[in-house]
Amino acid sequence: MKNQPSTSPSSSDKILVAATRIAQAHGFGGLNMRALADDLGIKAASLYYHFSSKADLAAAVARLYWEDSAATLEAFLIETPAPAECLRRYPNTFRKSLESDNRICLCSFMTAEYDDLPEGVRAEVRAFTEVNVAWLKRVIVAGAMVGAQDAENRAQAIFAAVSGAQLMARGRSDITLFDTLIDSYRAAGLIPA
Amino acid sequence: MKNQPSTSPSSSDKILVAATRIAQAHGFGGLNMRALADDLGIKAASLYYHFSSKADLAAAVARLYWEDSAATLEAFLIETPAPAECLRRYPNTFRKSLESDNRICLCSFMTAEYDDLPEGVRAEVRAFTEVNVAWLKRVIVAGAMVGAQDAENRAQAIFAAVSGAQLMARGRSDITLFDTLIDSYRAAGLIPA
DNA sequence: ACCTGAACACCGTTCAAGT
DNA sequence: ACCTGAACACCGTTCAAGT
Known about the structure:
- The first copy, chain A, has helices spanning about 10-25, 35-40, 45-50, 55-80, 85-90, 90-100, 105-110, 120-140, 150-170, 175-190.
- Chain A is mostly helical.
- Chain A has a domain at about 60-190: Tetracycline Repressor, domain 2 (Orthogonal Bundle).
- In chain A, helix 2 crosses helix 3 (about 45-50) and helix 6 packs parallel to helix 9 (about 150-170).
- The radius of gyration of chain A is 18 Å and the shape is elongated.
- The first copy, chain A, binds a DNA duplex through helix 3.
């Protein structure tokens, strides 16, 4: 979020963008340094000039990912001040990944791979969840939708359920299933309507 | 489910059991043929006597996994005929994976890896979801919990949400978070109580 | 400042050969 | 019937060397 808008992207930026797309489709384990280098028209060894290791690159990717997510959610709040409307639109941020070649949230994928993640990557993955849950809690509290005590629990539940819907829709390569699942959550009362 | 109870497990059975545990922790990509062979005290090349490829082994693992799941759910219905009680206990089947060294559902992990899965494995992963959704739908219809029209949607929603809760709990290595999330689903009305 | 070729130990897989 | 050693092309990574 603190990039120079009028400057062309640096080599490191281009690596981060390409690596993010690969990791959303194939995970940390499936992020292949040689294939990534091929995408960028350089050799695998060159990547190590910009990032000291695959762990270092993946941590930078995950950090950028949650920072972008945090900025998107903040912008959401500004353009859509009504809490109920904010919550109604929240699942759209997850829908966008599926629209992009059936990809999923980088951090959902990496959460599955938790055992194999370097600690530096784990910390950034956890940050993504925290940012999302904290945002949801603020909106729920602002809307006085449940007791203040229950706002944290409800926020976690919405995050987990939307993540699960995204994953299930990927397994069917069917974005309409995602929409159906979100509608079911609303009908059941999980997402205050 | 059609194994000979009084016979000692065959080499193939032992491979399947060990491979299942690895795949629940590391996924299809993280299922390392040499490490698996080491676990079993044989050489990697020997695995190819029993299974023609890693894809073939993973498909057999996923098939056994949903067959066992189907059998467990059927046994559930027999010992617990009350639909509401069945639904209340359903999340326990997912809790057990977390109890086993923070592992998750084999098929949730493989769903994340969908792009990299051989077609034979994909088919078995889809079967797991279908078995679970079909069981949930039967129970929901038997309990007359929602309109018959909505039973399918509700069954899918419960499966997606419980899967998401399992994944989120793994990312925190905190099984009590799983319990909290399931309670929140009940409080919100997603799981009929 | 940025990139590369060659090398290392590690992967899935094959296959001829062993018991 | 079941297992193995050696070999293949492929991974992440290093490093000396190039521009």
